[in-house]
Amino acid sequence: MTNTPDTPDADGGTSPRHNGRNHPKVVNERTLLALGRTGQQRFADAVTGFAGSMSFVYLHVAWFIVWILLNQGVFGDEAIFDPFPYGLLTMVVSLEAIFLSTFVMISQNRDTRRQNVRADLDYETTVRSEVWSAHIGRQLGIDPAAVEARVQEILRRTDAPAP
User: Which residues contact 64 (CB under 8 A, 6 or more apart)?
Assistant: First the structure.
């Protein structure tokens, strides 16, 4: 096998050459999605990532302890700014929950788009594999009908009934 140089694609990238033919570029879904990410989406992912960490939990435990101790008068009556039942704390935590749930939904929507891109790439790979397999099978003289009958037999046998 001779090494042939990569050749430019229509979009300016290169595809490896083999036997004088260009092969399709392999698309990495992470690279594809990273190209379309905005600063806002990166920020939402960062917030969601932090909110889903133990550091977030520890920070909130410390914050609540300090808030309650301050407002119970442990550090003097002049330090009290939100007496029991802590109405300001309740409002702040409620607003935080609203914003965090929005950031989580934004990140979940991006994750859904990523899963759709991955499914499309998986489908493309499956179609390519099937076409190549059929082509190679014909070149080897394998009967496609016999292969398909065997595939259907295996699929029927492995399709377990629902309990």
Answer: 89
